[in-house]
Specification:
The chain is α/β, with parallel strands linked by helices. It is globular and about 70 Å long. The chain binds NADP nicotinamide-adenine-dinucleotide phosphate. NADP nicotinamide-adenine-dinucleotide phosphate binds next to helix 2.
């Protein structure tokens, strides 16, 4: 088997989507008080803001726009005009769409004022440094979208926002996994770049774990909605002690808007579910999205899974090597500052509906659903092999 290739593909996918992983196996308004109902946080607010999103048209951005508009805020986006949203397109005629390039053309942002800047597209420290320096006199607040990738390598447990993170590459890192370190180091230094320009009382840093939900174009989570919708005998990879973490992208987006309304500066992990969850209960909970009959085959031997080229199916990442603690990030501070979580079955069902909507072409669906190397295609023979042991 070409393990290094499958790992590399996974890592590249993960990095594109924003969470750093090990290469040895495979990314404020009226903040409702904890316990306050979600409805209370989604109506119009009297504290209307002008919000600039650096980005806004891929995954997180359209959900931020939907949440902000529902709260009565005004939105501008800044992009190259290349990426088209696959959700909430109907809202974009209410959005001021500024065109430029973070690499070399910020003209559209000059001499303009906003209350809040949300930096989603920051994947280069210089980009964040330049936009924060340009906007700091004319904007009150800078929200940088970072990642739990700053904690890589994940060798600890219960990662907190105050934990030290790597700011430069340690000596002796294997060339193969260097770029995974680079992602976390880039995010950590970008956080500092935003803080240096806006100061700690005007900077919000949000570090999401894997974001899942409608408009996720990475295809790394879609296995579950597709597979669970069919029912029957379903494979669950991993041991009872294999934890998972993920966040519905809409819960992150809504929370970011509320953090900005409240001017709640600080660094926050954005990590769910609320309570610890292992891969077994994740699948059982997610399966409630569909009214079909299912049974589960738990394959809890890491050795067998590796032999059969199953080292990750997001949100499950085999917790070995540098990934031991990848699903062990604390959400205590986030919950105390208003992070809320919708039911997993809602996330799975809505992702399934988006996947089967006009937003995705039949060709894109076929690439995943008809791929002979996918787990969807290989699952039944792996189950048979496992049962025969
Ligand atoms: N997905 C995850 O699981 C995950 C987890 C943790 C952290 N994150 C982080 O979350 C953030 C949000 O990503 P997203 O893609 O969902 O955000 P988004 O705001 O929905 O989309 C990204 C935007 O960046 C724009 N862009 C790309 N290159 C640009 C450039 N050179 N100049 C100007 N604009 C540019 C794209 O538009 P154009 O192409 O038209 O320019 C697009 O609108 C990222 O920083 C990522 O690292 C993601």
């Amino acid at each position: 088997m070409d393990k290094s290739k499958s790992r590399r593909e996974f890592i590249e996918l993960s990095l594109k989507a924003g969470v750093a992983l090990s290469a040895v196996s495979p990314a404020l308004l009226s903040c409702s008080a904890p316990g306050e109902s979600k409805e209370a946080a989604t109506g119009e607010t009297s504290n209307k803001l002008n919000i600039l999103i650096l980005g806004g048209t891929s995954f997180l951005g359209p959900h931020q726009i939907a949440s902000a508009i529902s709260r009565g805020h005004a939105i501008s986006t800044f992009t190259r005009g290349k990426t088209m949203a696959t959700i909430h397109n109907e809202l974009f005629d209410q959005v001021e769409q500024l065109i430029g390039d973070r690499e070399n053309d910020l003209t559209a942002l000059e001499n303009r004022k906003w209350d809040v800047v949300m930096d989603n597209s920051g994947r280069n420290v210089e980009w964040t440094k330049r936009s924060a320096a340009l906007l700091k006199e004319n904007c009150d607040l800078y929200l940088y979208t970072s990642s739990t990738g700053v904690y890589y390598p994940y060798l600890e447990d219960n990662y907190k926002e105050s934990d030290e993170v790597l700011l430069s590459l340690p000596e002796g890192v294997d060339e193969d996994i260097k770029f995974i370190y680079d992602y976390g180091i880039m995010k950590a230094n970008s956080e500092l770049a935003a803080l240096a320009e806006f100061g700690s009382d005007r900077t919000i840093v949000v570090r999401p774990t894997y974001m899942i939900g409608p408009a996720d174009k990475t295809n790394r989570f879609i296995h579950w909605p597709i597979r669970l919708s069919k029912g029957g005998e379903i494979m669950i990879p991993g041991k009872e002690t294999d934890m998972v973490q993920y966040m519905d992208v809409r819960d992150v987006a809504e929370w970011m808007i509320r953090l900005a309304e409240d001017k709640r500066s600080g660094i926050f992990n954005a990590v769910g579910p609320k309570e610890e969850q292992n891969i077994h209960s994740f699948v059982e909970e997610a399966s409630k999205a569909f009214d079909v009959k299912s049974s589960f085959v738990k394959i809890d031997s890491h050795e067998f899974l590796v032999e059969n080229r199953i080292e990750y199916i997001v949100p499950w990442i085999m917790p070995t090597g540098n990934n031991q603690g990848s699903a062990r990030v604390s959400n205590e501070k986030a919950i105390n500052n208003g992070l809320q979580f919708r039911p997993l079955s809602e996330t799975v069902k809505d992702t399934y509906d988006w996947w089967n909507s006009d937003a995705i072409s039949q060709e894109q669906r076929d690439e995943v659903e008809q791929n002979p190397n996918s787990l969807l295609a290989r699952e039944q023979s792996i189950i048979e092999k496992w049962k025969a042991l």
